[in-house]
Amino acid sequence: MPRQPRTGVDERILDAAAALFARHGFEQTSLKSLADAVGLSKAGLLHHFPSKDALFEAAWEQSHVITRHVLELVSPLPAGPQRDRRSLELLTDYALDRPGIVALLFRSMTAPGEDPQQAQDELLLNEMFVIDPVTEMPRAIRIVGALSAMAVLTLLANQQGDKTTWRPLILATCYDALGHQEA
């Protein structure tokens, strides 16, 4: 059972680890690369998380916490543009603050079938945007496009260090990708 992060250090470790797991997958991510990413020795990293498996599980759990929280907030809204916009706003805010965790969440779209937890993530995202990917293929493709744009643009915003300027542009891009007209 993954434990919850204790400190800001744990959150930073989880986000950096999630980014590496999202980029390279579990098998191709070494404990050394995880430690290097957060500026710790392997022993220092293992002080925070007892194993690579525990770190991976904790990162996945954090992505599920985010998804469940967003779904909880948008569930009262009817399917449609307002719900889509609110989902995008919430996911964008998380992605700007925790880019690695959100990248791991979106891995189900970029590397399907690699991790057993991905099926749950796909279902939650489908529920969030009220979509049946089999019968609504054009909408499903637009959602993948919007979330992909969000992933890339929030990473760039973090690299530029200007989240405030980028946020409305990211949201407009994602909303446009879904085919909605600005209100």
UniProtKB/TrEMBL annotation:
It comes from Lentzea pudingi. Keywords: DNA-binding, Transcription, Transcription regulation. PANTHER family: HTH-TYPE TRANSCRIPTIONAL REGULATOR BETI, HTH-TYPE TRANSCRIPTIONAL REGULATOR RUTR. Residues 7-67 form the HTH tetR-type domain. SUPFAM superfamilies: Homeodomain-like (SSF46689). Residues 30-49 bind DNA. Gene3D superfamilies: Tetracycline Repressor, domain 2. This is HTH tetR-type domain-containing protein.
